Amino acid sequence: MEREQMRYLKGLSELYPTIGKASTEIINLQSILNLPKGTEHFLSDLHGEYEAFSHVLRNGSGAVKKKIDEIFGHTLSNHDKRFLATLIYYPREKMEMVKKTEDDIENWYRITLYRLIEVCKTTASKYTRSKVRKALPKDYAYVIEELITEKAEVLDKEAYYDEIVNTIIDIGRAENFIIALAELVQRLVIDHLHVLGDIYDRGPGPHFIMDRLCEYHSLDIQWGNHDVVWMGAAAGQGACIATVIRNSLRYGNQDILEDGYGINLIPLASLAMSVYGDDSCEVFTLKGDKKYSVSEEELARKMHKAIAVIQFKLEGQLVLDRPEFHMESRCLLDKINYEEGTIVLDGITYALKDCHFPTIDPADPYRLTEEEQETMDRIASAFQNCEKLHRHVELLLNKGGLYKVYNGNLLFHGCVPLDEEGNFKVADVYGKACSGKALYDELETYVRKAFFALDEEEKKKGQDIMWYIWAGSDSPLFGKDKMTTFERYFIEEALPKKETKNPYYRLLENAEVVNRILEEFGLSGENGHIVNGHVPVHQSEGESPVKCGGKVIVIDGGFSRAYQKVTGIAGYTLTYNSYGLQLSAHNPFTSVETAVREEKDIVSTKVAVTWSARRQLVGDTDTGRELKERIEELRQLLAAYRNGVIKEKK
C-alpha cells in the first residue's frame, strides 16, 4: 500500500475507528444512492423584487401544488387543493382569514393537520430520516417526527396518531403545528436552490432577498453584474460606489441604502443642493412607481445628477489608470465642447440635452472637486463599514462564483464571450490572455483578492476588476461592446446609445458552438445543458427561452417590474426533479394579500424541457459520485482492518 494512501486511510480511521462503524457508514451511504434525486430550483434576475421572490420560494415554482395533486388526486376538489396550497405558502395569513369565517374551528384544525401530515410524509419520503430530522423545527421536532413516521410496532396506529392530533388541538397548539408543518413542506419540497445572478438593483428589496438567502438550507449563487458592482462598492471601489448610488436613485430606491444598509446620503444631498440648487436636472428624471412630493423629487433629481457626474469622473480616472482594460473609448468628459454644449463621438457631433457642468474643469475633466471628494470619502467609509452589507457580501463569496457546474448543468449569469466565428474571445486580465473557462476562473480569483489578498496592489486590482466585470466589453457578466450610460442621459439620437450584444447570444442555436462551450467546462455536449439569465426573454414577441433543441435554457423572463412590459411575463424559473427539467413561466405577483384572499398562484405555464420515465437517483448525481468514492475508500479501510494493516480503536 502506498504511503499517501496509507496516511489517508489512517486519517479516515479516526472518523470510523472500528469495522462496525465503517460497515454501518457503507450501508448508510449505499442506501442513500438509491433514493430519488432531490429537486433543484433555479431562479435568475430577481432585481430586488422580494415579494415575488418570496412567493416563488414558498411554492417551489409549482412543486408544492404538484405534490398536493399527487397525494390527493380526485379525493379533494380543485378548490380544496388550491386552499391547501395557499395555506402552505402563507399559513399565518390564511389562518387569520379562516378564523373569521369558520364555525367549527377545532374540526378545521383536525382536518388540516391530517392533510398537512400526509403532504409532509410524501415530501419527506425521498430523504433519509437523518436529513428530515435536521429540517424539523426544534420546538416540535419529536412530535412531528412521530406524526410523519410509520410505527410498525404500534398495533392500533389510527388511535395512536388520533391521540397525538387531539392533544395538539386540546392544548391550544394547533396553529403553531400547522405553521410548522407548512414551513416543513416548503423546506423539503426543494432540496437545493440555484440563484443565477442579479439579486440587486431596480426593485426595492434586495437586502430582504439576501436576508432570506442567508437562512436558506442549501444554495449556490452565480454572481450577476449587478451583484458584482455591489460587491465592489462594499470593497470601497469608488466607481462601483457611485454606480450603486446612481442606480438606486434612478429607480427611487435610496431607501435600500439609507434604511436597508444604514448608509447616510446626506453628504450627497448637501453637495447636490450646493452645486445644482438652481438646476432643474430634468434629464435625471426618476424611474419606478414610487410616489414623491414635489420637493422630494426635485432633491432626488439633483442628487441623481451629482452622483452621475461623479461616476463619469471616477470611471474616467479608472480607465486611464488601467490601460489593460482597453476601455479608453468610454472616457467621454474630455470629448465635450463645454462652450458649445456638444460632444464628438465616432467623428459625429451631437448636441447635449444638459450642458450645465459646474464641477467639471475642461482642462482636467476627471478630477473631483474638493466637495465631491469629501462626499465620496464619507460615503465610501459608510460602505466599507456597513456590517449588514458585508454579511451579505460574505454570503455571495462563500456560496457564489462566476459559474457553477452541477449535475450536468452549466450555470452562469451572462455569457461566454465569443468572437464572430464562435470561438472563445481572448480578454486581457492584467496582462494575462484568458478565454473560455480560464477567463471566468481568472476574474473570480481577482474578485476574491479584493477581499482577502494581503498584498495591497493585488487587493486594489481585485477592487478595480469588479467595475470592469460590471461594464467591460469582454466581461462575461456584461456581454455587450459598451455601456452607454452617459449617452442615454445626455444625447437624444439613438445611434450612440446602441449597445451591441456579444455574438454568444446570436449563436445560441448553433449546436457546434454550444457543445464546445459545454466541453470547455467539462460537460458532455450530448447530455449537458447551459442555464443562464441576464438578458430578458421577450415572450410577448414570440421568443422562446429554450434554445438549441433544449441544450440552452435562458431563465430571465422579467422578475423586475421594469422589464415586464417588454417581456410579457414576470419571470421564468426552472425545476430539476428526479424525472427531468421543467420550465415555468410566471404571471406578475400583485401582493401577499391577493395571493391569500384569492388563492391565486403566479405559475402560468409549465414546459418539460427534458423528461425520463426512469427516475434519477442520488447515485446519478454529482453527490452520488462523491458518495461512491467515499464508499470505495471505506471498503479499502475495511480491508486494511481485516488484513491487520490498520488496528481498530475500540
Structural features:
650 residues; alpha/beta; 50% helix; five-stranded mixed β-sheet; seven-stranded mixed β-sheet; 27 helices
Give the count of helical stretches.
27
Spatial extent as radius of gyration = 28 Å
Residue stretches low in confidence (pLDDT < 50, at least 5 long) are: none
Q: Give the structural class.
A: alpha/beta
Reported for the largest beta sheet, the result is: 7 strands, mixed
Strand content: 5-15%
Shape field:
globular
DSSP strand tally: 17
Q: What's the arrangement of strands in the largest beta sheet?
A: 7-3-2-1-15-16-17
Distance between the termini: 24 Å
Helix content: 40-55%
- Whole-number mean pLDDT: 92
Tell me the layout of helices and strands.
Layout: H1 3-15, H2 19-32, E1 40-43, H3 50-59, H4 63-72, H5 78-89, H6 91-101, H7 105-124, H8 129-135, H9 141-148, H10 157-170, H11 174-189, E2 192-195, H12 206-214, E3 219-222, H13 225-234, H14 238-250, H15 254-260, H16 266-276, H17 294-321, E4 336-337, E5 342-345, E6 348-351, H18 370-384, H19 387-399, E7 400-401, E8 403-406, E9 409-412, E10 427-429, E11 432-434, H20 436-452, H21 456-471, H22 485-490, H23 503-506, H24 511-520, E12 529-532, E13 546-547, E14 552-554, H25 564-567, E15 572-577, E16 580-586, H26 592-598, E17 603-608, H27 622-642
Parallel strand pairs: 1-2, 2-3, 3-7, 9-12, 12-14
Antiparallel strand pairs: 1-15, 4-5, 5-6, 8-9, 10-11, 13-14, 15-16, 16-17
